[in-house]
Design brief:
By secondary structure, this protein is of the alpha+beta class. The protein has three domains: 103 residues, 3-Layer(aba) Sandwich (Rossmann fold), CATH 3.40.50.10330; 131 residues, Probable inorganic polyphosphate/atp-NAD kinase, domain 2 (Tumour Suppressor Smad4), CATH 2.60.200.30; 62 residues, Winged helix-like DNA-binding domain superfamily/Winged helix DNA-binding domain (Arc Repressor Mutant, subunit A, Orthogonal Bundle). 26% of the residues lie in helices and 34% in strands. The chain contains eight helices and 22 strands. Strand 1, helix 1 and strand 2 form a beta-alpha-beta unit. The protein is globular.
Length: 331
């Protein structure tokens, strides 16, 4: 058996720990970098949790080699089930092929006629400024479904349905369902409801306009300017994910969301606002949170402490300035 190891950082201690476990079981492995090509490998091991797995599939488009994601935190992910501390206990099973491979669909996306990388979770189309209405037309397989004004639109895969889409009122979609979800976020039309369409559908978000420029946000990471049109289809090559545990990601995601909903009832308004801001904007510093929410610095500091204690927000050191702390929602 030969294993390719993928990490954003060649000095990553997690990938060194994984390699040591593989070496100890006589498994040949080599480091795969952003500039190299995966070849002659039976599987790929990716560190960095769910985010690391998504980043891997953003740059590797057509590989059918299955991927095992390793989580370095205490909580398990949806794409990366195995915790780094327990990896050594799974190596024998990996070597003997005692695992299943789940084919996770990806969304193929064109923005104004140009291809971008496929999304594993979702593509969200919004105005570049929060809470600014965006007008758009939704067509599925050439048929107009609605002409709407809302905060934005989210198209999600089953595995992405328990993320941003669910927070915006979309349905939880079980992993073996061959469908995509479509949610118009905070529509002016109170009768507007989320849609579930076949994964073979041709989805068009057309006539996109707002007072400010509009953007397509892929997997909560990269933003692309949109002039008029975003089209979504099922990407040809799914992401092949190695599963070594039997827990249902959809059910566990729902349980987590239910607990969050219960906690939200007793959560201070400032904490709710910060949580929603981080969910929409992505990683931010404390100063940026104060600027975007217009809350006093002391209020932001206390709200962040509350969210950190509950585990709904985590902080990390900024790579650009080690004196800065970045706050984000764990993936």
């Amino acid at each position: 058996m030969r294993v390719a190891l993928s990490s954003q950082d060649q000095n990553d201690q997690a990938i060194k720990s994984v390699k040591a476990s593989l070496d100890g079981h006589g498994i040949d492995s080599y480091l795969f970098t952003n500039k190299s090509i995966v070849k002659d490998a039976d599987c790929v091991i990716v560190t960095g949790g769910d985010r690391g797995v998504r980043n891997y599939f953003h740059r590797v488009l057509d590989s059918a080699i299955p991927v095992l994601g390793i989580n370095e935190s205490e909580s398990s992910g949806f794409l990366a089930q195995i915790d780094l501390r327990e990896f050594s206990s799974f190596v024998k099973r990996l070597k003997s092929g005692d695992f299943t491979i789940e084919q996770v669909p990806r969304i193929g996306i064109k923005i104004d006629g140009k291809n971008v990388y496929p999304a594993l979770n979702d593509v969200a189309i919004f105005s570049s400024k929060s809470a600014m209405l965006m007008e758009h037309v939704l067509r599925v397989n050439g048929e107009e479904i609605w002409h709407d004004s809302s905060d934005g639109v989210i198209i999600s895969t089953p595995i992405g349905s328990s993320a941003y889409s669910m927070s915006a009122g979309g349905p939880v979609i079980f992993q073996d369902s061959k469908v995509f979800g479509i949610v118009s976020v905070n529509s002016l039309d109170v009768t507007r409801r989320p849609l579930v369409v076949s994964e073979d559908s041709f989805i068009e978000i057309d006539g996109i306009s707002s007072k400010l420029r509009c953007e397509a946000i892929l997997d909560g990471k990269d933003r692309f300017k949109v002039d008029n049109l975003v089209t979504c289809t099922k990407f040809t090559q799914p992401a092949n994910i190695i599963r070594m545990k039997k827990d249902s990601t959809a059910v566990s995601a729902l349980a987590k969301k239910v607990k969050l909903a219960e906690d939200l009832l007793n959560m201070p308004p400032s904490s709710k606002l910060l949580l929603k801001t981080l969910e929409y904007e992505g990683s931010l510093t404390q100063k940026e949170l104060s600027t975007k929410t217009l809350l006093p610095d002391r209020t932001v500091r206390l709200a962040l402490r509350h969210l950190l204690e509950k585990g709904y927000v985590k902080k990390r050191v900024s790579l650009r300035d080690t004196r800065q702390r970045i706050y984000e929602i764990p993936k």
